[in-house]
């Protein structure tokens, strides 16, 4: 109504506004890119971004969010490490009239506790990866090992579900082992080493599906260390589209990735600006694109393009 318009008129743009960003940490190349894009988008708009790195711990995120509320920030961006346990602190933000925008991961909480969520369709990402593998193996029998993301995170839950949907109805494909690699390169490598040992040095494995590229890059190293060829002896499919996976594709060591833009902040700031200007309610879910890349899609060019953007 009119009073809402009048009371929000002071927020004509984001310049000079203090906005808190509770980031998960720096577990992956994608995460590092998201952090740097968010900082540079904020700078472009003249936003005074207060950045808090939670080192993978929800309790640190909750502490940071309470700090932002106490400071009276104009808005809070949160990349939620896990899906559950947000209701209390988000209610505190709501009571303080501070809009919250979720970045890149979803939560299990009432939707009125956040203004909007900017993220990909993570079930779709998994489905695209699974459907790619179905096409790649044809009628061949294919035993798949899966490297899951952080336990309890929305991308780990949804990418698992989506992949299972993607391979459903194709009895020649089956997931024989599945374990978390916490979205990191080091754990991806370690868990893959275990899979290889358990499966006759890797001879029983046809493909590895990793919930992100960093774990795939770790798995590629483990496969090479075991004396097998990633990309041919064992197919490698993952999600993110970071420069390193394109480099692996150029080397013939990775087969497919589903791109996830690190620019979640651009749409988030646009939605926030409109909301603070005249109360415009954004879509509840702003969904970014999920595009498949394979070695046919100019991996060197894709690598160069991302490096040019500073990822
Ligand atoms: O794919 C992964 C990161 O939350 C969707 O988190 C994001 C995921 C991303 O660590 O690399």
Please summarize the sheet with the most strands. Answer: 6 strands, parallel
Q: Uncertain regions: pLDDT < 50 for 5+ in a row? A: 1-12
Bulk shape? elongated
Question: Beta-strand level of the residues, as a percent range?
Answer: 15-25%
Which structural class best describes the helix and strand composition?
Answer: alpha/beta
Q: What's the β-strand tally?
A: 12
Gyration radius (Cα, Å) is 21 Å
Q: Kindly report the spatial arrangement of strands forming the biggest sheet.
A: 2-1-3-4-5-11
Bound compounds: beta-D-fucofuranose
Task: Kindly report how far apart the N and C termini lie.
Answer: 43 Å
Main location: other
Keywords: Signal
InterPro entries: Peripla_BP_I, SBP_2_dom, YtfQ_transport
Protein name: Galactofuranose ABC transporter, galactofuranose-binding protein YtfQ
Question: How would you characterize this protein structure?
Answer:
Residues 19-272 form the Periplasmic binding protein domain. This protein has 311 residues and is α/β, with parallel strands linked by helices. Helices cover 44% and strands 20% of the residues. It has helices spanning 2-8, 29-45, 58-71, 87-95, 122-137, 154-167, 185-198, 213-225, 243-250, 265-278, 299-308, and strands at 18-23, 48-53, 75-78, 100-103, 116-120, 142-148, 173-180, 207-210, 235-240, 256-259, 285-288, 291-293. The strands form two sheets. Strands 2-1-3-4-5-11 form a six-stranded parallel sheet, sandwiched between helices. It has a six-stranded mixed sheet with strand order 7-6-8-9-10-12, with helices on both faces. β3 (75-78), α4 and β4 (100-103) form a beta-alpha-beta unit. α5 (122-137) runs parallel beside α6 and α9 runs antiparallel to α11 (299-308). The protein is elongated and about 60 Å long. Residues 1-12 have low confidence and may be disordered. It binds beta-D-fucofuranose.
């Amino acid at each position: 109504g009119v009073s809402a318009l009048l009371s929000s008129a002071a927020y004509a743009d984001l310049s000079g506004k203090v906005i808190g960003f509770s980031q998960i940490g720096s577990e992956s190349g994608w995460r590092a890119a998201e952090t740097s894009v968010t900082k540079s988008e904020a700078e472009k708009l003249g936003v005074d971004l207060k950045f808090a790195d939670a080192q993978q711990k929800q309790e640190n995120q909750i502490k940071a969010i309470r700090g932002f509320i106490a400071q009276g920030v104009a808005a809070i961006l949160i990349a939620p490490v896990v899906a559950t346990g947000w209701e209390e602190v988000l209610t505190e933000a709501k009571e303080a009239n501070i809009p919250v925008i979720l970045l890149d991961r979803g939560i299990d909480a009432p939707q009125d506790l956040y203004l909007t969520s900017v993220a990909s369709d993570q079930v779709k990402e998994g489905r695209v990866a699974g459907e790619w593998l179905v096409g790649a193996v044809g009628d061949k029998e294919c035993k798949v090992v899966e490297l899951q993301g952080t336990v309890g995170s929305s991308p780990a839950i949804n990418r698992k579900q989506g992949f299972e949907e993607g391979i459903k109805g194709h009895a020649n494909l089956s997931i024989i082992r599945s374990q978390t690699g916490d979205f990191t390169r080091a754990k991806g490598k370690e868990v893959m080493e275990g899979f290889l040992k358990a499966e006759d040095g890797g001879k029983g494995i046809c493909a590895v599906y990793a919930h992100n590229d960093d774990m795939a890059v770790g798995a590629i190293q483990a496969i090479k260390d075991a004396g097998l060829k990633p990309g041919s002896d064992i197919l490698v499919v993952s999600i993110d589209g970071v420069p390193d996976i394109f480099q692996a594709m150029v080397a013939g060591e990775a087969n497919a990735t589903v791109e996830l833009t690190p620019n979640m902040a651009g749409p988030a700031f646009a939605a926030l600006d409109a909301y603070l200007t005249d109360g415009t309610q954004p879509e509840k879910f702003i969904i970014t694109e999920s595009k498949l890349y394979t070695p046919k899609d100019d991996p060197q060019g894709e690598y160069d393009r991302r490096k040019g953007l500073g990822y």
